Amino acid sequence: MERSVIRLSHCQKEIFCFSVPEDCPSCGEVLRGNRLQEAPVSLPSPFTDGHKSSCCLLVAPAHNNPGREFDGTSDLHTGISNTKGVVYNYTRGGVLRDQSGWERCVSVPLVRPDMFHLLAQWDQYLDHFSDGSMWDPAWHRFDEEHQNCFTYCLHFINSVLATEGRSSLSRETFTHSFILPRMRRVSKYTTLYDHIQRHQYYMVDRQEDRQEDKQEDRAV
Questions:
Q1: Is 219 domain-assigned?
Q2: Which domain of life is it from (predicted)?
Q3: The pTM is what?
Q4: Fewer beta carbons below 10 Å: N end or C end of the chain?
Q5: What is the rounded distance in angstroms from the CA atom of residue 21 to the CA atom of residue 19?
C-alpha cells in the first residue's frame, strides 16, 4: 500500500518524508514535540481509484507494463468511467467494461457536479457510443496510431460536447490542457516518492510564496 508523503518546515527548509524524523536532517535539532514552525502537511496523491471516480477520463499503465507503474517510459491506457465506476476502454477485442483493474490511475473529470441533465444521461450515452460499429473489431481493426484507446475516449468526449452544443476538442488541445498537467504532477510525485524510499527524506530551501496549479482540477 502506498504511503503518504508529508511536508514539514524547519530551519528555512522544507522536508518531505513518510514520517516526522526524530532530528532535523539539516540542523540536527530535535523535531518531535512543538519545535516545528507549522504542522506537517500530507501531500495529495495524484492517483485515484478509477472505480470510485465517476464520469472521468482515466489514464493507467497499460497491461503490458510488467509492474503497472507510471515510470515515464511504459505505454499508458485510457478509459471512460460511468456513474457507477465501470471503466469503458477500447482494446483489440473491442470495448471492455472493467469493474476492476483501475484502482490506481490518473483521472480527468469530464462533468461538473452541477450538470445534472448530463449526469442523468451519461451512462446511456456511453453505452450507445460503445456499441457503435466503429469500435467493433468485426468492422474496424484496432490500430496503435489511429484507432486506439485514446481515439475512443476523445471521440466519446467530442460526441458529448456536440450533444451539448459545444465545440469539439482536438487531440493536441485535450492532451496539452488536461492530460499533460496531470502527468507532470505524476512525474514529480513519483520522483519524490522514490527518492524518499531510498534516502528517507528529501529537503529543499523553503519557498514562502508557493503557487499551486489550479487548472488541472477543472472539468472539461
A1: no
A2: Eukaryota
A3: 0.85
A4: N
A5: 6
